[in-house]
Amino acid sequence: SYELTQPPSVSVSPGQTARITCSGDALPKKYAYWYQQKSGQAPVLVIYEDSKRPSGIPERFSGSSSGTMATLTISGAQVEDEADYYCYSTDSSGNHGVFGGGTKLTVL
Amino acid sequence: QVQLVESGGGLVKPGGSLRLSCAASGFTFSDYYMSWIRQAPGKGLEWVSYISSSGSTIYYADSVKGRFTISRDNAKNSLYLQMNSLRAEDTAVYYCARAQRYGANWYFDLWGRGTLVTVSS
Questions:
Q1: CB B35, CB B49: distance < 8 Å
Q2: Which of B108, B113, B100 is nearest to B31 (CA)?
Q3: Contact B70/B86 with Cβ under 8 angstroms?
Q4: Mean pLDDT in runs of 10 for chain B (121 residues)?
Q5: Which of A33, A42, A97 sits opposite B50 (nearest CB)?
Q6: Nearest CA of chain B to the CA of A2: how many Å?
Q7: With 90 as the cut, is the pLDDT of residue A44 above it?
Q8: Residue A79 phi, psi (nearest 5)
């Protein structure tokens, strides 16, 4: 079955740039999406179609994708950005949704 | 107010059944694809199932295929998940989510708060 691979954790100091990667064989042909989940809350979409930002999401959140890797970048990370981040995509058939294992972002 | 509200979770014995519901409001439910996504305690997100706006196209994760059935009632603005032959590993918070489709890509732009299903004897 198709898999998306993320690092388990990323740690930065406030104001630094955090980068979270997501690798998957189908990403050259499929969009990547990114979700933020804070403790005890439902996930929130922060990036869609590789690099687009939904309304209400701060400009410090950006996304990119090249080859088999997608990247979520948080420029000038803030303490309130501490959360679990999940990449998401569909497999090559388009019949299955797949989440990455999640990355715990620590900002301190 | 645009929202999704899940209900129907609870404690069930292994081998038992449970039916989850999701009530949609604030948007035209019949225009959207919908999905169920789950999260085991302390674990990551797992996509479970997807249904098209008319109900004519349905997908399942391999882990639930043959045991779970997704359905919808557009007249009632409601999504359902019938779960049979439940196992301990089905224990999770189950989220209802609105899906957006772009070509062969689909993703989730609105989530409910989730309902907890616990499978234990």
A1: yes
A2: B100
A3: no
A4: 97 98 98 98 97 96 97 98 98 98 90 98 96
A5: A97
A6: 11
A7: yes
A8: -55, -35
